[in-house]
Amino acid sequence: MFRNNYDSDAVTFSPTGRLFQVEYALEAIKQGSAAVGLTSKNNAVLVALKRNAEDLGSYHKKVIKIDDHLAIVLAGLAPDARVLSNFLRTKAMESKMLFNRPISIQKAANLLADKAQQNTQSYGSRPYGVGLLIIGYDESGSHLFEFQPSGNVLKYKANAIGARSQGAKTFLEKNFESFDDLNDAELIKNGVEALRQTLKDSELSTSNTTIAIVGKDGLKIYEDEDVEPFLEQVTVEEEGGDDDAQDGSGDERMEEDGAAQ
């Protein structure tokens, strides 16, 4: 791998103003399996693709519950995500104990950002090699934030991270304007369809897919067989669309034959 004199620590800027250790951490996110987040007026949804190292091993956990109104999904190094999730759980408990109210989603995202940014200010530490999508619901509504190892947190209506996430982003960019008025089932359906755009040689299944939704009624996480109804809904609609397309092409061929005669 190419090396230079400015990538041995996370606190030295290159002459062009870059922190190479932070950029390497961002590359680690691109190696993780894809995850999609999207929001409506009343709900926020995460849909994640789980990965197993080999057929004999279990799938990595992707969605982590922080509180009854807050969850995160990771792409990148899972151990780093575990450290950050434990930190955020502690802060959520402190908010309940000290202020008798759940932590706001904006506050939770900013706390993670501050913790990550400290690793770019002192020797002996490295940036966290993980990206997070944070969903939650508080008194100001539903929220989706993206956390980056550099300490940036950005709010989104919809977003995707991880390997081949550009396909999901393209789908979300085309459809995000309709998300506000969708109910929870329709929002999940769009999230599943967006995640499918990241696949290359595999298919979504009950083993490799996790879905989380949060709203006024709290947080729900669907895994294993609980995911099957959402996957079937997308599959049925796709098959119906293919049948319609085939019927339409048949009609066009008949019209062309008639014109030729």
TrEMBL record:
Cellular component terms per the entry's GO annotation: cytoplasm; nucleus; proteasome core complex, alpha-subunit complex
Species, as recorded: Saccharomycopsis crataegensis
Domain of life (superkingdom): Eukaryota
Function: The proteasome degrades poly-ubiquitinated proteins in the cytoplasm and in the nucleus. It is essential for the regulated turnover of proteins and for the removal of misfolded proteins. The proteasome is a multicatalytic proteinase complex that is characterized by its ability to cleave peptides with Arg, Phe, Tyr, Leu, and Glu adjacent to the leaving group at neutral or slightly basic pH. It has an ATP-dependent proteolytic activity.
Ranges of biased composition (kind: Acidic residues): 233-246
Domain (Proteasome alpha-type subunits): residue spans on this chain: 6-28
Pfam families: Proteasome, Proteasome_A_N
Protein name listed in UniProt: Proteasome core particle subunit alpha 6
Main location: cytoplasm
Alphabetical GO biological process terms: proteasomal ubiquitin-independent protein catabolic process; proteasome-mediated ubiquitin-dependent protein catabolic process
PROSITE patterns attached to this UniProt entry: PROTEASOME_ALPHA_1, PROTEASOME_ALPHA_2
Region entry Disordered, spans: 233-261
Top-level taxonomy: Eukaryota, Fungi, Dikarya, Ascomycota, Saccharomycotina
